[in-house]
Amino acid sequence: MSIPTIETASKAQIKSFQEQELQKLLRYLQNNSPYYRSRFQSEGILIEDITTLEELTKIPVTTKDDLQRHNMDFLCIPKEAVVDFVTTSGTLGDPVTFALSDADLDRLAYNEAISFACSGVTKEDVLQLMTTIDRRFMAGMAYYLGARELGAGIIRVGSGVPELQWDTIQKFRPTYLICVPSFLLKLIEYANSHDISLEDSGVKAAICIGEPIREANFESNTLAKKITAAWDLELFSTYASTEMSTAFNECEAHQGGHHHPELIIVEVLDENNEAVPMGEVGELTITTLGVTAMPLLRFKTGDMVQTHDEPCSCGRTTLRLGPVVGRKQQMIKYKGTTLYPPAMFNVMHHFESIETFVIEIDHNEIGTDEIILKIACDTPSEAFQNEIKDHFRAKLRVTPTIVVEEAAVIDAIRFPKLSRKPRNIIDKRR
To answer: Which fold has domain 1-327?
Structure first.
């Protein structure tokens, strides 16, 4: 699949294209969205006055709280035209329902096809899907539809169970894996203990979801280095969400996830909803293009990111998203230090003997944030716990409270009932 023409256009051409698409979206929302029509009226917004991307600031942002309180008011089509219902993962609150039309499923397939192609997937490749395609989960469905659109093969194995994953790899010889990157360590461990040759697996790359594999400067983080030191794989980072119905995949240059301007308008905002300078951290705020059932206008995702606008060596001229720094609501203020969970995950992946872990954030008795690290490991000695604390102090200038638990206890926390993906961070501050 070739790169879409708009993704190699000049910045001026991309801006002009998006402004035309924005005007179409505003008219569509005015005519079809109970929520946005009411919002336009209550705020005195005349959509005819908004003709440029800069004028988007005249429109208030949409939050996840808005989606939860007015969920079905965002629906723009008759209910009988809805062909699929999905829900968000509920990472920071109750899940939100999203409805999709036939056209939305076509858009989802297009998005994932060009995202896969960005990461080097061709119709000659076979992808092994190591995440659920059920439980109202959009991502698994998107991967399946995208592979089908691209003409690549896909094997729907589901999450977990290293034995089943390796049985599938050996039988069907996939070339790409789609999985949470930390699960690759479990596959490596299983292969080493069962005399399975990693080099002869036929797998050449993995598309990594749900966990960061890059530092802010795009170098591999600790997790990625551990994977590639043991298994000669090319790792591709990807970022997406149900609300966006859009993915940002790395290309072979591994310099951030590429923006698809035909599908989404991107803003990166500070706490006052003002645009941050290019390269600075802010909250990703998106406006969906081409969505018919539940389009979103200036939706604040809660994800803190950096953007980069230099043309890429792959030929694309679009914005690139750096690795997600963290969730805005999971920002931790600890004795004058501000940090996000992904930085702590990176520290944890340094320790080989930790079997599994979960990080809990809570308020202590004096009302400040406290970090509680629950671990399962082979060597739960006081010396090892002090080594972890020393590493945290050296890397992040914070010291967690460490609690040693059985692996089954921690996994029960990480995989609650109805969970579709692991929860490595539990925020109890609310």
So the answer is: Rossmann fold (3.40.50)
